[in-house]
Amino acid sequence: MEVLYIGYINSLKKRGLCFVSPYSFEGSVLDFDKIFQWAIENKIAVLVLSDTTLHGVVKFIRVSKKYKDIIPVIGYRKYDKTYIFRNTSEFTEFLKIYNSRDLTEHNLNILEQRFIHIKSKPIYFLPGQEEIYKILCDYIGKKIETDDIDNFDINKHIFEVDDGQFNIQDYSFKSSQKLPIPNNDFLEELISQEKEYKERLEREIKLVKAFKFEDYFYTVKKIVEIAKAHNIEVGYGRGSAVGSLLAYRLGITKIDPVKYNLLFERFLNEGRTDYPDIDLDIEDVRRQELIKLLKSEFGYVYNISTFVGIPKKFLDSIPEEYANELSNIPIQRSTHAAGVIISTTPLNVPMIHSESGIDTIEWDMDDLQYLGYIKFDLLGLKTLSIYKELRDTISQSFKEEKEEFKKNTYRYISAGFTDNVFQLESSIGKSVVRDVKPSNISELAITISLNRPGPLRSGITGEIRNLKLKKLKKYNLEILDETYGLPIYQEQIMKIAMELAGFSSTQADILRKAIAKKDIDSIRQLYERLKNALFGKLGKEGLELAKNILAFGEYAFNKSHAIAYSHLTYYMAYFKVNFPDIFYDTYLKYDTSILQDALYNLQTLNYKVLPPKLFSNLKTMNKDEKIYHLPLHILPGISVEKSKQLQTMEFKSFEDFVEKADLPLSVIEALIKVGAFDDIFDSRRKAIQKLRSLRNKFNQEAVKIGNKLFGKIVKVDEAKVEEDWERTNMEYDILGIALFLPTKVTNNLAPYCIAYSLDLPYAVHISVKAGYGTDGKSVFKVNLPDGNYTLIYPNRFEPGHLKVSYEVKTMPTKSEISKLSTQGFEQIILPSGKVIQNVRPIMNGIRTVLRDK
After folding, report:
1. Torsions phi, psi of 629, nearest 5?
2. 159 φψ region: left (φ > 0), alpha (ψ -120 to 50), beta (else)
3. Per-residue pLDDT for 80 more than 70?
4. What is the mean pLDDT of residues 21-48?
5. Through-space distance between the first and last CA atoms of the chain, rounded to whole angstroms
6. Is the distance from CB of 117 to CB of 2 less than 8 angstroms?
7. Alpha carbon of 359 to those of 25, 59, 332: distances in Å?
8. Partner of 552 at 20 to 30 A CA spacing, among 511, 626, 738, 816?
């Protein structure tokens, strides 16, 4: 059925326009609000959405509600026809065909018979947007006819329709999701079993029931139980949900909120209008497995779409006026990293089918929540996968944490030895821990909370260092005792408002949110009430605290989240410091990009890092020497599984390995280059030549390798022994790191690996050869002529081997001074000007000054 009227427009007909939205990914630059505004200005009464996807349908209808004089029409374009759905029933009927993805001739005939259509050519841009349209089409690679733009006349696209011709009815979309329903009152059972904190649990459950959130909590509980039943690791907890005793008792979180004085009202209070967020961290390697298990349990599990815009780098390269127009234009669909929709019944929504069995809803989370859908966030966390394997591996040999190991862990954390430690591996994280010097979980949570540029710039970490040393508190308020009298947590702001100013939990939460957003005008009365209460309690100090809350409130962190994550941070540090070889063996299975970190951090712990080991019977090392062999799977072409297989095999000789290993010649060549056969060959060139001679009878690839390396075929015994720097270069080409020293040097200053691991501006004596620097222990790439230099980490070089002074801004503590065995090369200059010889500082605020010999 075709409806199309074009020509003379009279007062009895409505003007209509067909348009394509950006959510069709065909180059449209038509923002929904702008097309509606243009329609009003140009007396367009009907707007027809003419996309080839259904991504933008909900957004289209949502925006249309602001423009009552415009009739929104949902359409779907196939070839030159736009099929129109005049009401919710027709759209739902179309969804069945759409979701079948079977738009064959049979179903196209159904479309023809069941739905009216128009052939009006849709527009992709409005007058004045021609240049923006060209830029976008060029970026996405869409070819456009120049004539379509240069001679664009929007009037040719306007059609007219008789009043009532479409007979469009209001679209009514709402959630069709059904959550699992428990067979019994599981919350009442919890109360009857509670012995420690019954009153608090009753209070939490009362609020949950008032909001009718029981099914939501039950579903999250079931998700965690299914994961645990299949040995899929779930994290300690995430976000404000960690403050809920109910979540803890249901097994959803692993942190006792009463023990850590966490605030339930930060998670859920009387003023909440939407569902709470209980996000779950899941070991990333088994997240998809869990989702399939949930589908098997509940019936229906769907991924959620998200939309990707134009990268900022490209937007920065075009004129600002165009960049502003294009900044909110989606150019492709992706899948939400964590969110899924769970239901016991199928959903009436557009789907993208997947061979994995988990389909994806075409709408994004914003639209789904608008319609009333409830999402469940299952975040795949790589650290959790690593943690689980480390815990299981180490627990086989060590049944309990030793006290000396705990102290050792916090000592290394406080020095900034936190590469590859969850939440603390950045330069900022290292600076924060050196100031706070955590010695328990609560202080570690403070560290995590301050691990952001804002708090560091504000100077609060240095203030905590001074308060801690002097055993003082900034403000004498019990609520702030745990953070040295400073308001660091969002929960503290809420507690101050509730306990000192008589705020309800809802008012306290409104205050917290407004302060975080710097939206003080919206809560001026509440803030004045808070300020007056603090003045009454603390006098002038209270007024200062009120200002401090306002100033630092935007940096305030969620304590519940910090406490939960501090447990994972602690254990990752515990494993790294006390079992470094196992730690890096495990970590490198999941992420080989941290290979450089592994090398320098192991060297910092006095490990001698060597190439992968293939022949266990050769060159046994001193048992007292700390040796770490790089795992085989760090090499391209060797998987973790293949690495395990090779480690279980016995090889009598190089020839035996070549025959049995079942590896491509290129991978064996790489193994030779990184030194895996140095125990049986005095030259890596000779080893590669031997490889060629073994295989050239029946493998031309080996001949090519030999010719490429040496330019001509030579006998093994005639191959020239490579120089040291050539071995260094071989390793670096394959691995991006090097173990073999390119030259010899004596370093009387800080080891390079320590400067790297702590990220401090230490001075290092180095020698450079062929573009590689070494301090006699570590190797790194440099762009300098051959010779001796003094490096101030990370990238300042001075010719010659010089002495160094470290000027410090504050008086170092005993733990911040490292005594040295070398004499006369390093010294600390204190703020008073006093000099301490043969020491090196481990603290922030160092100024490194080189001295002549």
Report:
1. -95, 130
2. beta
3. yes
4. 96
5. 94
6. yes
7. 20, 21, 17
8. 816
Residue for token digits 């450089």? 596
For residues 474 and 155, what is the distance between their CA atoms, to the nearest angstrom? Answer: 69
> Residues of 81-117 as b/e, b for ≥16 C-beta within 10 angstroms?
bbbbbbebebbeebbebbbeeeeeeeebeebeeebbb
Give the side-chain half-sphere CA count within 13 A for 49: 31
In single-letter form, the type of residue at position 533 comes to A
Q: Are 224 and 248 in contact (CB under 8 A)?
A: no
What is the pairing mode between strands 330-343 and 375-381?
A: antiparallel
Per-residue b/e over 580-603, b at no fewer than 16 CB within 10 Å? bebbbbbbbbeebebbebbbbbbb
CA distance 526 to 507: 8
Yes or no: say if 824 and 803 are a contact pair by the CB < 8 Å rule.
yes
Residues 6+ apart with CB under 8 A from 741: 724, 728, 774, 776, 779
Query: DSSP alpha helices (H): ranges in 214-306?
Result: 214-229, 245-249, 287-298
- Find residue 851's DSSP bridge partners: 803
> In the prediction, which pLDDT does 249 show?
98
Residue position matching structure tokens 């069941």: 114
> Residues 685-712: pLDDT tens digits?
999 999 988 877 545 554 455 555 555 4
CA dihedral (793, 797, 799, 802) in degrees, to 10, reads -30
Q: What tokens does 467 get?
A: 């308060």
- Report residue 69: phi and psi, to 5°: -85, -5
The pTM of this model reads: 0.91
Q: How far apart are CA 370 and CA 58, in angstroms?
A: 9
CA distances 682 to 492, 672, 685, 724, Å, are 66, 11, 9, 12
Q: Which helix (H) or strand (E) holds 728?
A: helix 724-735
d(C-alpha 489, C-alpha 566), whole Å: 14
Contact 112, 85 (CB under 8 A): no
Judge whether 764 and 802 are in contact, CB under 8 Å.
no
Q: Are 652 and 680 in contact (CB under 8 A)?
A: no
